[in-house]
Amino acid sequence: MKFITGFLILCVSIGTAAKVIPVNELFLSPSASSYLLNDAGNLIVGKFTDENGQGYLEIIDVKTHQSYKAVTYSKKDDESIRSFFWIDNNHVYLMFRKKRNDKGMIVQIKDKSGKIETTANTIKASGLVLGPVKDEQDKIWLMRTNPEEEELTINAVNVDNLLNNNFSETRTFPFLMEDAIAYMPDADGNIRFAISVNETDVLIWYFDSDNSKWIEFYSINKKSDTFTPLGTLENGKIAVLSNEITDKVAVMEFDINTQRYGEVLFEHEKYDLISAALDSEGELSQVSYFDHGQWKTQYFSDQGIEFSSIFSNKYPQLQHALTSQSPRYAVALAFSSNDPGAFYLIDKHKKKVKELKRLYPNINPAEMIRSKSFRIKSRNQDDLEIIFTPGNKKYHNQTLIVMPHGGPVGARDLAVFDQQTQFLANRGYSVLKVNFSGSSGFGKRHLDKGVAQFGRRIEQDLTDAVQFIESKYNFKYKCAAGASYGGYSAVMLIATHPEEYDCAVAAFGIYDLPMLFNASNWKILEEYRATVEAVVGKESKDLLAYSPVYFANKIQDPILLLAGEEDDRAPIEHSNRMKYVLKKLNKPFEYLFYEKTGHGHPNWYGDWHEALLTDDFLRRTLKIPPIEGNNLDNYIDEIMLLADSFSFEDNVKNDDKKSIYYLRIAAERRHPRALFNLGAHYHRGDGVKKDINQAIRYYKQASDESYSKASYRIYEIYSEGKYVEKNVEQAHKYLKIAGMQGHKEALDLAWERSCSAKTNFFDLQSCFQLTKKLDTKKYEVKIRLMVAGLIEPEQLSKSQRKELFRFLKDTMNVKLERDVQVFVVGEGIQINDNYQSYLSSQAIPDVAMDKDNAYIIEFRILDNEQKKGSASKDVKGQEWHHPVIVSWNILDENETISNDRRISNTKLYIGNDDIKLKYVLTSEKDFVPGKYELKVESLSGKVLLTKQFKLSELPESS
Amino acid sequence: MYVKKQLFYFLLVIILSLLSACVSNVRSIKYDSDLKLETTEGYLLLAVETNVDLKSIHILGAKNIKLNRSDLLKGSNYILVDMPAGDYRIDKITMSSWLGYQYVKLDEEYWSFTIQPGVISYAGHVNVKSSIWSATGYFELNNKSSYALEYMEQEFPNIMANRTLVYEGPGEDGFLDFIDQRFMGGNVE
Questions:
Q1: pLDDT-derived band of residue A355, with 50, 70 and 90 as boundaries?
Q2: What is the β-pairing status of strands A429-435 and A101-112?
Q3: Is pLDDT at B13 greater than 50 in this prediction?
Q4: Contacts A519 to B, Cβ<8 Å
Q5: Of A30, A487, A521, A706, which has the maximum CB count within 10 A?
């Protein structure tokens, strides 16, 4: 049994690892966000968007787990929910956006005998919602301009009054500052903070509720250190997250009156705190930080410890954070390096954990690669944390991608789910990320060590990390890849270690450090230069030695340069300079500068493109074969994305040669559209020498792969005779093929030609095949006309007629065998368009008609079994029931049909309704005195009705 | 009184004539043929990247010039003109908006450059972001020396064979000097 289990696990492991994740399933926005419990712990509110862009605010009943859609929105209609929060246990406030217009809404939730009912209403009152009011049921703080006094006020408004714009009985917060531009409540729902701006500073104010006064306690401009207020401590001082007097960001006691720090409430030995919280008693309840790149929360309250422990026991491999708690329940967001995350409900009583919603429902963590974190000692005796993600074993290509992060000072890498890392790892690359000198999260000293260390200490750290990883794992190839500072660093690594690296991918990078100080007339100003100096160091000629533009001759390895033409942070000039010198020096490099793109892509398409281009560059450079096999369809789809990007309107400049390169790859694998597009390139001479024979060759291959446009194109070429000798037969052959493949214009034309016995293209079998391709509902009238045309005298042979009827019976479900009768409902002459005037049950053997008069007959087709009068009801709605052929003829002297004097084409009618026919004299020409006959026949040739009338000359007016 | 009025109009006409004579309409050089410049003359290379058609750009200095609509269409425009050497500033940019023609006066401190004698002085890329619904916009003078260099090499190889392209835009930048020294065989002092 153990053996069987082990075998199954092995199968699952190999099976899941074998899948290449399509780029567009990896790089996309999360579906779920912000699932929060109310205080009572009986309801959860959250936001979810499905894969079709349909989103909703959902309310989940904690007991039953039943979900209710409270408000829906559609991304296609440019709708979204910007934010939401619980006002109290039964009301949710949300900000709904449609086409850049925001409106506040309130969802009211009622529990009716165990079933939740939600009502969403738009707020009529205008103003800015600040947050819920402490200890006051269904009230929120609203900042608005009082229309009577035209002054700013903050009101505690209940839901009904807010919805109805009624402020008659609302409480007003009376302690507004004169020059405040914004107010914020604290976690307890009390108005606590205000912001004001003077000429030089942005000031944050604290409201001392004991003394009812505002105290200035922080200036954003004065301090560059972290300073985040958390709330009021038991002793009346406030707790802040700060690193002003400590190396690490810590929870500090801060006295607002003296503006001095007090006790250090919590400082981690190694890491900056990311967040912290106080409980309702003003005691520190939790702190969070990243340990080896993994989110860690340390809880101090019994409740937090218990919830966290229940979760960790169930999912020890996941990093988690409690987003909201009640005495019994808590909601947690949990994730890991190979799991993009999900919201979970923890039940303390039952010690159970239930998954609520996944952030990326289509991403299976089992198919992702787990990262490993290490701590190493660098040559400069610094502790460095590094994150290593091994390549997918199935597709392992023995390549290490060294991926420096951006910044470089104040940014960092984490061991959480990262799309770019997973993209590469899934396709077999191993990825190394390093929190080098200057990375955030490790204290100010570590941060400062990265300042002015471009191309120096930072790249030393990276090199030390690479040596460490290479001591543990073997690689055949090594490339550096990164964006922003990472792009710079990638180029520096290969320039300074050409023997060790094989290539670089540098995106949105900077390559000329002095230019950072001289990029434009605004960027030479002191304020801007100071911000650059704080990271790069002072402007000096020494920076040239660390600017790869000026020593590109040292670069030996191929580079892929990517950049955004509208990048304001790393101006495109950096990449263009790099491109210029690499070109001058005949270095191996490729480049792509994305249009309408800044310091990163404006949409996911850009990320897909960059990822695929990077993968393609790496494989071509390192001669790693593409992953095909079971993933062929996905591989070709992605190749076609690249091919299309160089042909269509997007952020990628069109480039026929590049497009053709990718088209050839897909065409070799018989991709229909690729074959067609290649044909079109040869046809037009775009990117290749014009060659109509090659074009036709590719078009025919595409046609063989059922690509209707290609078949139609061949038809056009042969029928036009512009590029090749006109060939009617070939043209018609491909027209029919195109029609059979579903090309609309081709289908219409080929069908008309094949089904018309009067054309040279008449071919009953093709006619039948093409008819089957038609939308019979849409084409019903046309098909009837077609059949009527075919069954006209002398059009078909006897056997062909039989074939036609068999086809109609088998394919169109026409009931041929049932015997029918025709019953005349009315008959008469219509005078002067008076519709009602014609009816007469009397036969009209001899009539005199003027122009615009009409002979009219109305009849009904019945089964023999059916009774008169019930026919209409009985047959209504049935298609092709009781078809009859109707023909109008002029009889000659021998009372036989005169072929050269036929007055209209034969028509086919079906007996779904009463049939009203009329013969109208529309012109003098039509006025031919003589005997006329209307003949109604069944398809099998049985004459069901003949009606004759004689048209006499009108008596001459006297 | 009548005489005084006549004299006033006469003087006004004279002044206006003089004033209009002070600003020359110039158009970019189209042919790649190096001009015989006086020792006190040089070339100015200015690029204009704009998302709206501009009506004109006034440049004041040793010679006052006006760049016109045909050289200032939406997109990227390069203007190469021969000018007396000296200090210059981009004075104003005139755009058309729904209100009619609107001009934006630029601050001398941030929009100045120098034309050096005998060389091609690249003053920068004027970046204009505006719309016809706006009477103003975003204006910046960017250093895109490598683009200017590529443009000159592509469009004016003969002039480039005789003249050096130097950066005279905002701040200091040694890139063009480096290129000249490294690839063109020039001497940097």
A1: very high
A2: unpaired
A3: no
A4: 142-143, 171
A5: A487
Tokens for A68, please give them. Answer: 């209710």
pLDDT digits (tens, 9 = 90+) for A886-918: 777 777 777 777 655 555 556 666 555 566 666
Q: How confident is the model at residue A629 (pLDDT cuts 50, 70, 90)?
A: confident
> If pLDDT is split at 50, 70 and 90, which confidence band does A946 have?
confident
- Residues A97 and A82 sit within 8 Å (Cβ to Cβ): yes
Q: Is residue A519 within 8 angstroms of chain B, CB to CB?
A: yes
Does the distance separating the beta carbons of B142 and A573 come in below 8 Å? yes
Q: Of A525, A534, A515, A581, which is closest to residue A553 (Cα–Cα)?
A: A581
Cβ count within 10 A of residue A916: 13
**pLDDT value at B171 more than 90:** yes
Residue pair A600/A631 in contact by the 8 Å Cβ criterion = no
Mean pLDDT, residues A254-269 taken together: 91
CA distances from A137 to A86, A132, A142 (A): 11, 9, 15
Query: CA–CA separation, B92 vs B111, rounded Å?
Result: 10
Which 8-state DSSP code applies to residue B34?
Answer: -
Cβ(A711)–Cβ(A675) under 8 Å? no
Interface probe with B: pick from A511, A513, A521, most Cβ of B within 10 Å:
A521
Residues, chain B: 189
Give the pLDDT confidence score for residue A13 in this predicted structure: 36
Mean pLDDT for the stretch of residues A372-390: 96
- Give ipTM to 2 decimals: 0.89
Using a CB-CB distance cutoff of 8 angstroms, which residues of chain A are in contact with residue B170? 518, 520-521, 523-524
pLDDT exceeds 60 at position B19? no
Contact of B184 with chain A, judged by CB distance below 8 Å, is answered with no
pLDDT interval class at A731 (50, 70, 90): very high
As a three-state string, the secondary structure of A666-703 is HHHCCCHHHHHHHHHHHHHCCCCCCCHHHHHHHHHHHH
Contact A550 B178 (CB under 8 A): yes
| Three-state secondary structure call for residue A137 | coil
Distance (Å, whole) CA A522 – CA B142: 9
Half-sphere exposure of A238 (CA within 13 A, CB side): 25
- Of A23-37, A185-199, A817-831, B17-31, least confident by mean pLDDT is A817-831
Residues in chain A: 958
* Interface test mutation site (partner A, options B126, B143, B181, max chain A beta carbons within 10 A): B143
Interchain proximity A580–B140, CB inside 8 Å: no
Helix axis angle, A708-720 relative to A744-755, nearest 10°?
60
Select from A897, A895, A916 the least CA-distant residue to A907. A916
- What whole-number distance in Å separates Cα of residue A542 and Cα of residue A456? 12
pLDDT band at A1 (very low <50, low <70, confident <90, very high): very low
Q: Which residues of B touch A542 (CB under 8 A)?
A: none
Q: Cβ–Cβ of A522/B147 closer than 8 Å?
A: no
Q: Do B149 and A580 touch (CB under 8 A)?
A: yes
Distance CA B121, CA A603 (A): 39
Distance (Å) from the C-alpha of residue A585 to the closest C-alpha of chain B?
9
Which residue in A381, A375, A449 sits closest to A415, CA to CA?
A375
Residue of B nearest to A576 (CA): B146
CA atoms of A12 and A625, how far apart (whole Å): 25
pLDDT at residue B108 tops 80: yes
Q: Given an 8 Å threshold on Cβ–Cβ distance, is B145 in contact with A577?
A: yes
Mean pLDDT of chain B: 85
**DSSP classification of residue A897:** B
Helices A656-668 and A632-645: crossing angle in degrees, nearest 10, is 160
SS3 A864: coil
Closest-CA distance of chain A to residue B103, Å: 20
Instruction: Using an 8 Å CB-CB cutoff, list chain A residues near B173.
Output: 514-515, 518
Chains A, B: CB contacts within 8 A come to 65
